[in-house]
């Protein structure tokens, strides 16, 4: 079976939604996205080869498109499949979350959304660099329109900034990728853009200096997409201005494209460069965690707070990736998926609140636990997941990322030396405290406290009696909204209680991604005078005893 | 002239074709620069396009590669589509201003 | 009185306080029995599952707006069954069985080769030894009783709020059980943060009060500071020992004891300590606990007095094999404990809110426990945890009964003579028991447990100072405890109702405003007419009596120790990982005033207790205006004014933290926000974006709209390129020619 169906189906859905009658658009798109989800589950269950760290399908046959070294090579290992499942899982929920929020130009809206899904599928399923890049870049187009048509007051500026900022970085990524491909073509005599081939060539045949620049180039795009600290400023604006659905997908999946790129391309393709720059990106990760957490703390707009918290949380992923050990790697993959669930759900919650009150100002409301108990319950659950409470999803990833960073020392006995070490983890760990501060501030201002409902200038209690809020929505969540949030909450709890289900499948993939590292890290450490085998020897002695 | 081309490794047949191409291009360029009539200007661009086509064919022939001819087919198709579109536009513009002079539309630059 | 004291001292001196010299010498080297996996005990998983099920049922009750007591029934049944299971296991194993592990399911478990350092194994599995059982017995037992108490206490909230409360209690029991039964540090961390969550939810139960919301937030964040310490400790342990499972760790510590330790090994106990200090409200992270009294009183009794706050003691007792390798760390624990005990006692003396007095006394007693751990008697600490759990729960529950009956009144200046108020007899007398036990009245359980700790401190010249601090604090404790009892329960009958301000979840209550209270069956009618105290009924009274009985029985091991018999608590501790601290030194040489430690502590401890009670009796019962006169006298003197002021203001610790941490963080955050918006985004990003625009402006004049102009520019460019090519070419050929 060819996974092409996962890409074609959303395209058909997009066409059907865009060309069909307007009042059916949302249902068409919703059903199509559900079908994609069902198909992805069927694929994941029926072809479990991906769970072993290998790619499924395991053929190197190019499809119909085969020219200039570009092959229609599709498939995925466990990380691809997890991100793919995350995408297909979030997409129907996001669409259902837009049913009442989007009332104009519905056909276009749902059409763009399905195209976005197709692009994401392509990016996550490509085993060919150019195909990946096509999918990666094509996500910009639907997102641009989603922000600039259905967004808030400054939607134009936000959309343009989002597009140009991320596009500018991608140019460097493409250039670096083509450089590697050109060098590979020089060596082998034929162009071939398959990721596996380029990874092997890049890690083995490029000089350290080349790898440095290739890594920097690849990271230029991925760092902006992730986003890493100083190049994050497009994100709060884009999140703030995007419609709820756009924010959800942006946080849940689009950001993961950046970290996925680091995981799949940048690290394995230029390991020496990654080692060289690990300290740099580690510092940026720490800065992202701390600085944006503090910026979160003084936000007055609930949606902006969560947008900044995304930057802070993605900092943990960056730390984990640059730990160069299985703990950090697997923690990062866990955190990518878990952040998608909990932050996506938080954006959905904020969107539901916005639909009722038409404001996201935290000072305008208070004590909604009385007014909307069901909504508040979900808000508390997802906030706690985001805080990283053990037992919910956020904890596993956060803990493993930080632990991976902590043990990433030059002389540690895990077999995977690193360049960062304990201080990075301890300083970044302050982010755990700051995270609790700003997220509980959000809860304390909106959910708890004396009741204050925006827009109800007269007695709020009178308002509380009415069953209908603004825009024909019920005071508390409707059945549809509950049905959107329940699966996400269940997934959060499920992963938190039994993360093994994911750790098992990411284990071989992480090992594959790390193949080249111990050697390169040791070489780098030796070059920087950091060889202290005393501790290793001591501990090895203890092991043998 | 000839020794120069020979020195560049070009054969006689190709030289003739290239000279023809250069001449056509120059005529087209000069025509485009000196005339104000939009139809004539358009014809001049077509001349330049065909000059490029001839060069393509000549080089394709020289390197015994079908790529050059493929591109010419592309150019011809594009030129045909372009001609239809451009002439349609010119007619429209003429209806608006009752003149074919390109200067009549100078304010379009903003 | 002095005669009685000396008699007592005599009897105690004769009795070896838990094992003789020889026995104790062997303790220091006692092996830690390796744990064996025992899959047949998988049913212990129900101890975790039952509170979880009850939490789910409570959530469903909230969702379906159940108005009756169903959530309470679910919770009490689930917790009672959990207690029964723990009891069953205890009876089946007895106090001396070897530790076992029960694997339930894989949690964070992956590897890249297997073995230490090549895998990370943190499963949901249980480590059950007698220390675990000791803790579980009182956690589930008191949990059940307090849930029963709360079923009546929280009646006014029936509806979603009632379900929410019992949801929180169930979550707490789940997390606390996981914390105590965890077989690895990460699962312990799960429980650690889980009890923090339960604490957050329950402190903020009356979420309409901004003070309750702030207190809940403060508790969670201060605990997070400690949690970071714990997390760093876990990472350090993994780096140094390659595993986080207790069974393997205890063996590794033994090996490490003979090996060399780097600075990062020495750091481990300090990191764990930070976590313990956060959870157990010790210096410097203690200020959240008094604020946590915003929660409903059963919560204060269960979480913030009896069980959760002892988690720090449990952690250090559990990791005793590690701590015993690091004498400096032990000393730090002891000193922090002693200083916290003293500081909290001085604050407790000057508070007027009964619950706050008890909160500070909790901090102070926890200080004793840490002192015990620090000076090397985990037995004493565990025994004090055990006795304290009963008498402090009892005190809080009586305070809750008073609060419940007097519409939220907790100010000891507005309550008097309660023992003569109808229906409050049981409350008053059980409170007296609690107060006696807290002030370590001779032959009470509190006396025995505190005695063990102080004797151990006095026995070692290094820690003698701690012993004196402990004795001084004991006097303060007796004073402030009986200050409450003499004010509230003794004296003439006089009371004023409080302004009952509990947030009800039912919007209807709100709509009708305060008058809604009149419809309740409680008679909180404080609008007009006489106020009738609302006496506690069956559930509250029976729970008070049961816990009171428990508090009295908790003294039995103390009496056994007095008689030189092997006692239950010591047996439990000595069959656990804390075996090396399971005794009390038996020094017979005089250490001060010609007395050996036992006699010293008995005499001075009894004196401190009776002296404190006597002063309280004098200025708070016999001549109540004396207390005010004393305060006024101190305030009017410029030299002593600082004393009552700073005690009443909690030594300005909150203000200090605000100035040191919160304010700088707030300022920095605003600066960073400004920096982010205007420098990074404004200057760099948008500035870079303006460069192409500016470039475009520069060349704009060339684009005037004239087609020939454009064409000319292009042709000119072409000519330039051609000219350059031609020049190079001709130059090249010219050179060749």
Topology readout:
The complex is a heterotrimer of chains A (545), B (110) and C (737).
Chain A: H1 4-19, H2 22-46, E1 66-67, E2 70-71, H3 78-97, H4 106-125, H5 129-138, H6 140-150, H7 155-188, H8 195-205, H9 208-225, H10 234-241, H11 244-269, H12 271-297, H13 302-321, H14 326-357, H15 368-371, H16 373-387, H17 393-406, H18 422-447, H19 460-465, H20 479-497, H21 500-513, H22 517-527, H23 533-544
Antiparallel strand pairs in A: 1-2
Chain B: H1 2-7, H2 12-34, H3 38-63, H4 67-97
Chain C: H1 2-14, H2 21-27, E1 36-37, H3 45-63, H4 70-93, E2 100-111, E3 119-128, H5 130-153, H6 160-181, H7 185-203, H8 210-241, H9 246-258, H10 263-279, H11 288-291, H12 297-306, H13 311-318, H14 320-323, H15 327-349, H16 354-375, H17 378-405, E4 415-416, H18 425-438, H19 445-459, H20 464-488, E5 494-495, H21 507-511, H22 516-519, H23 538-553, H24 556-562, H25 568-574, H26 597-622, H27 625-636, H28 642-648, H29 653-699, H30 707-736
Parallel strand pairs in C: 1-2
Antiparallel strand pairs in C: 2-3, 4-5
Helix pairs in contact in C: 1-26, 3-4, 3-6, 4-5, 4-6, 5-6, 5-12, 5-17, 5-23, 5-25, 6-7, 7-8, 7-12, 8-10, 10-13, 12-17, 15-16, 15-20, 16-17, 16-19, 16-20, 17-18, 17-19, 17-23, 17-25, 18-20, 18-23, 19-20, 19-26, 20-26
The amount of beta strand of chain B, in percent, is under 5%
Number of strands of chain A: 2
What is the H/E string of chain A?
A: HHEEHHHHHHHHHHHHHHHHHHHHH
Alpha-beta classification of chain B: mainly alpha
CATH topology of chain B: Helix Hairpins
The greatest interface here is: A-C, 76 and 71 residues
Tell me the distance between the termini of chain B. Answer: 45 Å
Main sheet summary of chain B: none
Sheet with most strands of chain A: 2 strands, antiparallel
CATH class of chain B: Mainly Alpha
Estimate the mean pLDDT confidence of chain B: 84
Give the name of the CATH architecture of chain B: Orthogonal Bundle
| Spatial ordering of strands, largest sheet of chain A | 1-2
Strand content of chain A: under 5%
User: How much is the radius of gyration of chain B in Å?
Assistant: 18 Å
């Amino acid at each position: 079976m060819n996974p092409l169906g996962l890409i074609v189906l959303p395209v058909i859905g997009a066409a059907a939604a865009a060309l069909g009658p307007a009042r059916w658009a949302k249902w068409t798109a919703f059903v199509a996205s559900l079908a994609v989800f069902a198909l992805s589950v069927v694929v994941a269950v029926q072809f479990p080869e991906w769970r072993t760290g290998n790619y499924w399908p395991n053929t190197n046959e190019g499809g119909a498109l085969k020219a200039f070294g570009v092959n229609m090579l599709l498939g995925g290992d466990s990380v691809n499949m997890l991100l793919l499942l995350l995408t297909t899982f979030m997409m129907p929920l996001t669409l259902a979350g837009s049913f009442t929020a989007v009332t104009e130009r519905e056909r276009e809206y749902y059409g763009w959304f399905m195209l976005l899904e197709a692009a994401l599928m392509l990016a996550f399923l490509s085993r060919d660099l150019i195909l990946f890049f096509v999918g990666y870049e094509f996500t910009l187009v639907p997102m641009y329109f989603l922000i600039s048509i259905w967004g808030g007051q400054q939607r134009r500026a936000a959309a343009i900034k989002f597009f140009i900022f991320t596009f500018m970085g991608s140019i460097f990524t493409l250039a670096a990728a083509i450089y590697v491909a050109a060098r590979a073509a020089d060596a082998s005599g034929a162009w071939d853009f398959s990721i596996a081939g380029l990874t092997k060539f890049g890690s083995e045949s490029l000089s350290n200096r080349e790898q440095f620049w290739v890594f920097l180039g690849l990271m230029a795009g991925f760092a902006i997409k992730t986003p890493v600290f100083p190049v994050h400023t497009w994100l709060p604006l884009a999140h703030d201005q995007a419609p709820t659905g756009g924010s959800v997908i942006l946080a849940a999946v689009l950001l993961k494209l950046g970290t996925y790129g680091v995981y799949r391309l940048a690290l394995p393709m230029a390991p020496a460069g990654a080692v060289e720059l690990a300290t740099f990106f580690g510092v940026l990760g720490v800065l992202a965690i701390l600085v944006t957490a503090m910026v979160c703390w003084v936000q007055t707009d609930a949606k902006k707070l969560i947008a900044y918290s995304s930057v802070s949380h993605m900092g943990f992923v960056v730390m984990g990736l640059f730990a160069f050990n299985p703990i950090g790697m697997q923690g990062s993959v866990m955190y990518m998926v878990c952040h998608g669930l909990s932050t996506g759900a938080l954006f959905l919650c904020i969107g539901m609140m916005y639909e009722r009150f038409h404001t996201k100002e935290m000072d305008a409301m208070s004590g909604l636990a009385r007014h909307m108990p069901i909504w508040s319950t979900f808000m508390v659950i997802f906030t706690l997941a985001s805080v990283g409470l053990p037992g919910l999803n956020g904890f596993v990833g956060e803990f493993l990322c930080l632990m991976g960073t902590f043990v990433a020392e030059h002389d540690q006995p895990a077999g995977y030396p690193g360049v960062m070490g304990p201080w990075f983890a301890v300083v970044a760990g302050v982010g755990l405290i700051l995270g609790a501060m700003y997220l509980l501030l959000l809860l304390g201002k909106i959910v708890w406290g004396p009741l204050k409902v925006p827009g109800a200038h007269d007695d709020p209690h009178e308002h509380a009696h009415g069953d209908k809020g603004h825009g024909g929505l019920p005071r508390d969540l409707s059945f549809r909204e509950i049905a959107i949030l329940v699966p996400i909450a269940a997934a959060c709890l499920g992963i938190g209680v039994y993360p093994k289900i994911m750790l098992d499948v990411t284990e071989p993939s992480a090992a594959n991604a790390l193949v080249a590292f111990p050697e390169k890290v040791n070489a780098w450490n030796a070059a920087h005078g950091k060889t202290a085998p005393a501790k290793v020897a001591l501990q090895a002695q203890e092991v043998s005893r | 002239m000839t020794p120069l081309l020979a020195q560049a490794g070009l054969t006689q047949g190709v030289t003739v074709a290239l000279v023809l191409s250069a001449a056509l291009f120059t005529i087209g360029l000069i025509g485009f620069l000196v005339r104000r009539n939009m139809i004539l200007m358009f014809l001049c661009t077509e001349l330049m396009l065909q000059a490029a086509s001839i060069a393509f064919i000549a080089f394709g022939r020289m390197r015994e590669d079908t790529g050059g001819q493929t591109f010419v087919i592309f150019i011809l198709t594009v030129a045909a589509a372009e001609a239809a579109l451009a002439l349609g536009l010119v007619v429209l513009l003429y209806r608006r201003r009752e003149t074919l002079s390109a200067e009549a539309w100078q304010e379009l630059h903003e | 009185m002095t005669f009685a004291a000396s008699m007592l001292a005599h009897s105690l001196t004769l009795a070896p306080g838990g094992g003789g010299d020889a026995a104790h010498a062997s303790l220091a080297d006692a092996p830690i029995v390796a744990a064996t996996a025992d899959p047949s005990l998988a049913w212990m998983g129900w101890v975790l599952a039952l509170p979880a099920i009850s939490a789910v049922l409570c959530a469903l009750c909230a969702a379906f707006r159940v108005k009756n007591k169903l959530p309470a029934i679910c919770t009490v049944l689930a917790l009672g069954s959990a207690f029964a299971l723990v009891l069953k296991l205890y009876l089946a194993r007895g106090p001396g069985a070897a530790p076992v592990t029960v694997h339930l399911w894989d949690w964070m478990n992956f590897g890249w080769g297997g073995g230490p350092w090549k895998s990370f194994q943190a499963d949901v599995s249980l480590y059950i030894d007698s220390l675990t059982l000791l803790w579980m017995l009182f956690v589930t037992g008191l949990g059940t009783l307090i849930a029963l108490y709360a079923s009546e206490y929280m009646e006014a909230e029936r509806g979603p709020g009632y379900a929410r409360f019992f949801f929180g209690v169930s979550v707490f029991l789940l997390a606390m059980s996981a914390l105590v039964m965890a077989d690895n540090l990460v699962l312990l961390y799960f429980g650690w943060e889980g009890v923090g969550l339960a604490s957050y939810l329950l402190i903020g139960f009356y979420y309409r009060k901004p003070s309750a919301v702030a207190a809940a937030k403060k508790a969670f964040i201060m605990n997070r500071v400690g949690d970071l310490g714990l997390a760093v400790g876990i990472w350090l342990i993994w780096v140094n020992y390659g595993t986080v499972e207790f069974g393997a760790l205890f063996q590794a510590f033994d090996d490490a004891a003979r090996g060399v330790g780097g600075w990062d090994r020495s750091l481990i106990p300090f990191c764990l300590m930070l976590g313990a200090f956060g959870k157990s409200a010790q210096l410097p992270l203690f200020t959240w606990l008094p604020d946590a009294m915003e929660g409903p009183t059963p919560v204060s009794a269960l979480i913030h007095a009896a069980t959760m706050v002892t988690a720090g003691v449990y952690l250090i007792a559990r990791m005793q094999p590690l701590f015993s390798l690091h004498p400096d760390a032990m000393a730090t624990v002891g000193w922090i404990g002693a200083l916290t005990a003293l500081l909290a006692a001085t604050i407790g003396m000057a508070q007027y809110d009964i619950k706050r007095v008890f909160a500070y006394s909790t901090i102070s007693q926890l200080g004793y426990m840490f002192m015990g751990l620090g000076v090397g008697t985990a037995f004493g600490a565990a025994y004090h945890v055990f006795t304290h759990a009963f008498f402090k729960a009892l005190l809080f529950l009586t305070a809750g009964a008073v609060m419940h009956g007097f519409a939220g009144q907790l100010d000891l200046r507005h309550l008097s003579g309660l023992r003569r108020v109808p229906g409050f007899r049981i409350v008053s007398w059980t409170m007296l028991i609690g107060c006696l036990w807290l002030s370590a009245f001779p032959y009470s359980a509190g006396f025995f447990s505190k005695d063990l700790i102080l004797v151990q401190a006095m026995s070692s010249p290094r820690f003698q100072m701690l012993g004196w601090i402990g004795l001084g604090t004991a006097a303060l404790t007796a004073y402030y405890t009986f200050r409450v009892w003499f004010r509230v329960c003794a004296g003439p009958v006089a009371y004023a109702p409080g302004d009952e301000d509990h947030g009800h979840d039912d919007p209807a209550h709100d709509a009708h405003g305060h008058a809604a209270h009149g419809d309740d069956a409680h008679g909180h009618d404080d609008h007009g007419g006489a106020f009738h105290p609302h006496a506690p009924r069956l559930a509250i009274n029976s729970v008070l009596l049961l816990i009171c009985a428990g508090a009295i029985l908790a003294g039995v091991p103390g009496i056994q120790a007095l008689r030189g018999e092997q006692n239950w608590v010591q047996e439990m501790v000595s069959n656990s990982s804390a075996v090396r601290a399971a005794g009390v030194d038996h020094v017979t040489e005089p250490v001060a005033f010609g007395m050996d430690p036992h006699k010293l502590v008995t005499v001075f401890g009894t004196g401190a207790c009776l002296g404190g009670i006597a002063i309280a009796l004098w200025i708070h019962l016999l001549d109540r205006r004396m207390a005010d006169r004393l305060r006024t006298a101190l305030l009017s003197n410029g030299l002593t004014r600082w004393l009552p002021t700073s005690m009443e203001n909690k030594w300005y610790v909150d203000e200090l933290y605000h100035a040191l941490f919160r304010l700088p963080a707030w300022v920095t955050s605003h600066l960073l926000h400004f920096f982010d918006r205007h420098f990074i985004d404004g200057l760099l990003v948008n500035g870079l974006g303006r460069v192409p625009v500016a470039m475009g402006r520069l060349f704009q004049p060339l684009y005037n709209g004239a087609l020939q102009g454009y064409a000319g520019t292009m042709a000119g460019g072409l000519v330039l390129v051609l000219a350059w090519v031609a020049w190079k070419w001709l130059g090249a050929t010219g050179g060749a020619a």
